[in-house]
Every structure is written in structure tokens, then in C-alpha cells.
Amino acid sequence: xxxxxxxxxxxxxxxxxxxxxxxxxxxxxxxxxxxxxxxxxxxxxxxxxxxxxxxxxx
Length: 58
What we know:
The protein is mainly alpha-helical. Helix content is 81%, strand content 0%. It has helices spanning 3-18, 23-30, 34-43, 45-57.
């Protein structure tokens, strides 16, 4: 997967999470595994910060 494709999937993930979809639902929707999501949280500080900010506003 290209860097642009990964970036688009991360953006899609966050957008869908803001709409109150579950992590499992989002993974299926954007065709990633939950392990990929967990990897993003560990390796991408910006993604994790954005994800955490959504959690605090829910």
C-alpha cells in the first residue's frame, strides 16, 4: 500500500470513528485488520493524538 493510500485510510478511520462507528466496523469498512489499527496507534503519534482527542469528546 502506498503512503498516500495509508494516509487516506487513516483519515477515513478517524472520520468514521467520529460518526460513532465501532473500531471493528471501521476496520471492515476500510479493509484493514484490527492489528493494523493498533500498529497505527503505536507508530503514528499524530494519528494517536487525533484518535485520543475523539475519545475525549465522545
